[in-house]
Design a protein that fits this description.
Layout: H1 2-13, E1 20-26, H2 33-48, E2 53-58, H3 66-74, E3 80-84, H4 85-88, H5 107-114, H6 117-125, E4 131-137, E5 142-146, E6 161-164, H7 168-176, E7 180-183, H8 189-194, E8 200-203, H9 205-210, E9 219-226, E10 230-235, H10 236-239, H11 244-278, E11 282-284, H12 289-303, H13 309-317
Parallel strand pairs: 1-2, 1-3, 6-7, 9-11
Antiparallel strand pairs: 3-10, 4-10, 5-8, 5-9
Helix pairs in contact: 2-11, 7-12
The structure holds alpha-D-glucopyranuronic acid (GCU).
Alpha-D-glucopyranuronic acid binds next to strand 3.
């Protein structure tokens, strides 16, 4: 890893007279629809800039966890990453609002906000923490999945060790619903499930499938507690070095990739659902009302924060 980072530092800082290369690290496998969105951005950027501004992708956590990738951006070792907004909330607290259970009513409500005022505020506000947001990708809704326990109501989560992402909001979310939240990075989870370190986890369908967690977990419970988006980030150390023209190319390429990524997402979910049924994974569609009710204190607590309350109010009234 050190070698790669050292090489990337050299490469990403060395721009020849006519081309610049941006190193882009993320933690998902190449079969994932979010990776495909990043590839679409890479291609569009190449085309728009006529090869003058390019992206090199390091998928699959090759350069470390999401937290580590964000740190590499902050110190300027690599230029770009794609992380879950959950991971980002450790660095830019405004993103905590994206992890509030049942805040977004559906995908339309989510994107109306992410692609409107609220999204702009979150993406641009990241600069304060050296992490400028470029765009949001669809990451669907997150639901619980378990190895051996069917879950029909929050009561069934009692005493269950559930892996969540490494941030306070994800921990509060799962604990509020009655589970025992166990934070760890995505890359460690398959082994943790296999070795019974945890009894289950929570994620969207494409991540459940592309990580092969479905091989170990036989129940997928559509409680859809959160809709945490994925976010493409550029370190301000690199962003500030780009010319206005280069920034324009990158933003236009990102915009194009956002539209394509939504299509990849929908197609993948459909294929994955079929495959999961054939593989014998049991889908459970619980009554969501008790989940909504039990998780309410999470939003109430964030509403006490004068920085976050106006953002939450805006989303609720939009
Ligand atoms: C999703 C998300 C990833 C994140 C993962 C996780 O798959 O796209 O960015 O790492 O969830 O649960 O850690």
């Amino acid at each position: 890893m050190l070698l790669v980072v050292a090489a990337s530092t050299f490469q990403s800082c060395s721009s020849t007279k006519d081309s610049k290369l941006l190193y882009f690290a993320h933690s998902l496998p190449m079969s994932h629809p979010v990776h495909k969105g990043i590839v679409a951005m890479q291609e569009a950027l190449n085309e728009k800039s006529d090869g003058k501004l390019q992206i090199k992708i390091f998928p699959d956590g090759q350069l470390g966890s999401e937290r580590e990738a964000l740190e590499l951006l902050q110190i300027g070792s690599i230029a770009m990453t794609k992380v879950s907004a959950s991971a980002l909330s450790n660095f830019a607290p405004e993103y905590q609002i994206t992890v509030i259970p049942y805040l977004f009513r559906d995908s339309d409500h989510l994107f109306r906000n992410l692609e409107g005022e609220v999204g702009k505020q979150l993406l641009e506000g990241g600069s304060e923490y050296l992490l400028r947001g470029i765009c949001f990708y669809d990451a669907g809704a997150r639901s619980f999945y378990t190895k051996d326990r069917p879950v029909h109501s929050p009561d069934d989560l009692d005493g269950l060790k559930v892996r969540v992402q490494n941030d306070q909001m994800s921990v509060s979310m799962a604990n509020s619903l009655g589970a025992s939240a166990t934070p760890m990075s995505f890359g460690e989870l398959y082994t943790a499930l296999q070795q019974n370190v945890v009894d289950g986890a929570e994620n969207n369908i494409p991540s459940f499938v592309s990580s092969n967690h479905f091989e170990v977990c036989k129940y997928y419970i559509f409680d859809e507690h959160t809709m945490v988006p994925d976010v493409v980030i550029i370190g301000t150390k690199f962003w500030d070095l780009l010319s206005d023209e280069e920034k324009g190319w990158l933003e236009a390429a990102a915009k194009e990739s956002v539209a394509k990524q939504k299509v990849y997402w929908a197609e993948t979910v459909e294929e994955n659902m079929k495959m999961l049924k054939e593989a014998g994974v049991e889908f459970i569609y619980p009554d969501k009302a008790p989940f909504v009710e039990k998780s309410k204190p999470v939003m109430e607590r964030l509403m006490q924060n004068p920085k976050l309350k106006p953002i939450i109010d805006k989303i609720n009234s939009n």
